[in-house]
Amino acid sequence: MLILPKLTLVTGGAASGKSDYAERLIASSGLPKKYFATSQIWDDEMAEKVRAHRTSRAGDGWDTVETGTDLVAAIHATVPDEAVLIDCATMWLTAIIMADGDPADEVPRVLGALSQSPTPFVIVTNEVGQGIVPDTSMGRAFRNIQGRFNQAAARQADSVIAVMSGLPFALKGTLPKVSQ
User: Fold this and answer.
1) Quick one: which of 77, 107, 158, 175 has the most CB atoms within 10 Å?
2) Which member of 6, 24, 49, 53 is catalytic?
């Protein structure tokens, strides 16, 4: 059994293997597995992605909670003897913005709730600033919001793991051995 740190951030590009690695990390803990799903379904492509994620966890002992934008309430409802995966911060931030919320208000609330909780958390997030510069002001603003969230979460995290091409490497802390 793997003892999870209080907060682990798993980051990388789109379709890099972040979620798969984060799920295996939680499973390796031997604790009851809770999944905070943050995605909102905006179109058919997202509906298929959510369906695939749900199918991959089906029958595997995951307790899935659709958090919507109220991630703080979900964090406060956790218990110490479970391991929680938040997948993903990028979709949560998108939902906040689409609901006309203010990430500058919500990010500190979420990070504060995480710091107060005795439950181990693994957060999946996207590195959106390593590609081309977005061609719209909204895209550039989102890239900056996501980058600031990632930096704040990484400062708070005990462990930061980057995943590229399905391969994890430690940016902060040590790379844990996880089950395949």
Assistant:
1) 107
2) 53
